[in-house]
Structure formats: C-alpha cells, structure tokens
Amino acid sequence: MASGTPSRTAPPAPVGPEPWVPPQLRLVCLDIDDTLIDCTAAIRRTLAVLTGRGDLWPLWDLITEEHVAMVVAGQLGYEVMHHRRTECFLAELGILADFAQVASFEERRRDILSQSWRLFDDVLPCLEWLRAAGLQLAAVTNASGTHQRRKIADLGLAPFFDHVAIAGELGVAKPDPLMFHSACLALGCDPAQAVHVGDKLDTDAIGAQDAGLGAVWLDRDDTSRTGERAPVGVHTVTTLAELPELLVSEYVTVGVPAQRAAGTPAAQLRDRVL
Ligand SMILES: [Mg+2]
C-alpha cells in the first residue's frame, strides 16, 4: 500500500433476520370428539329419541361444560361425572330421579348414542394423507377410556393411530401439558416436532401451544370470523381438508420440504414483514 493512502477495513456485513428454518414434523395428534366424530349431531339425535324433544341440546351442552370442567380440575372422575350430569339434566327438566333411575336413563342414552356415531366426511381422506406422508398419528382426547376406545374401534379409526392418550386413563385432561407430552413420550417425539389438531380453542389449540407443540384449531363453524380469535401462533382451519396444505406449507414433513406456498396468508405476511 502506498505511503499516505488511508487504510480502509471492509464494512461489517449487514445483520439481517435469521433465515426462516421450517420445523420438522413427525407426529400429528388429533382430538376425537367433534374433530373426527360428529358428537354434537349424535347427542342431539339421542336426546330427541329419549325425550321426544328437539330443543334440549343447549341445556345438555351447558350442563356438560360445567361437569367436564370439574373433571379437568381433577374434582370428578368420568364415571361419576356421567351420572351426575344426567341427574342434573333430569332435575333441570323437573324430573327428580333416584340413583337407579338416573343410571337406567344414562345406560339407555349410551346405547342409543353408540348407534349414532358418525365420522365427518373429511376425516378418512385426511387420515389417509397423513399416513401416506409418513407421519405418526396419536389420538389425544378428553373422555373416559372404555367408551372412547369403543368409539374409536367401532368407527374403524384404531388402525390409523400409533398411540391413543385418553384423559380418563391418564388421570389428567387437556389442556394439561401431560396429555400432549404423554403422546410425544410414547412415540419418542420431541413436542417441537409435533402438531395437535382439535375443535376446542382453549383445551386443544392453546393447550397444545402452551405444551410446546404446534397448534391447529379446527373451527368447523367458522366462528373465528365473528367471535373467538386464535392467538398468534395458532393456525386455524375450518375443515380437515385444509390440513395437508397447512402442514406442507409450515413444516418439513417426512420426505416433503416445507413450501410456504406464495399465496397462503402466512407466506404473504412473512414476505411483507421480513
Ligand atoms: Mg373435541
């Protein structure tokens, strides 16, 4: 370098955002009731058959929510909850029934209900796609073990699942992280490599997110347009038919690189912001 020529050092390379690295996906956890099985329709039909009235679903749903909350809080087991829920339902209708009468009503309700289960139309194509993609599948469901395993078997769902985690068998219920982690542990999968899909925003989607899994809220009634909104990081779909595209866009699934397809809302937002 000639004498007198000022020396220059190369300017530091500009520091930009870390490049987005799509997470690996190995496990898809699925809720059962009102995610895969149309429980609401089955319960509506059953109540109408038992009472001759078609207007009792809202009352049953409200009583169920109150009693399931006690199960989630660890105050009741499922079998006791089922009996008390029916006792409370009958009392609201002005029917004071003794223990045997409540048990008889509950038994008839279960018998009729077991004939009424139906899968949503989008379930089997989605499960077949997930299996074909090489993903492991787990059912993660808040229910009593005996009845849920029977439902899963009767509807032909059992062969799809590598593991079934049921609240009534584990002694905890979603949104407790143990529910999600038990499935991950059983299948040797890190929670960060798993996604949970369910119809309840709080117990399914937010519970899974808090447990470190990817979270997908299945909003079949499209209520997110007018009411409940998913928090940042929770994906929303209105049908399981949308799930494959979402997973391919957001995750590296087995043998399928994440695409973040231009045109998806997530991709458009990312391109605008970063
Ligand atoms: Mg559900």
Any key phrases for this structure?
six-stranded parallel sheet, magnesium, Rossmann fold, 6 strands, HAD-like_hydrolase, alpha/beta, elongated, binds magnesium ion, hydrolase, 274 residues, 2 domains, Putative hydrolase of the HAD superfamily
Low-confidence stretches: none
- H-E order: EHHHHHEHEHHEHEEHH
Strand order of the largest sheet: 3-2-1-4-5-6
Mean pLDDT: 88
CATH homologous superfamily caption of the largest domain: HAD superfamily/HAD-like
Give the end-to-end Cα distance, rounded to a whole number of Å: 41 Å
What's the architecture of the largest domain, going by CATH?
3-Layer(aba) Sandwich
Shape: elongated
CATH topology of the largest domain: Rossmann fold
- Largest sheet descriptor: 6 strands, parallel
- Count of discrete structural domains: 2
Strand content: 5-15%
* Strand-pairing-aware structural class: alpha/beta
- Main CATH class of the largest domain: Alpha Beta
Residues in helix, %: 40-55%
Question: What Rg is obtained from the alpha carbons, in whole angstroms?
Answer: 24 Å
- Each distinct ligand: magnesium ion
**Total number of helical segments?**
11
Strand tally: 6
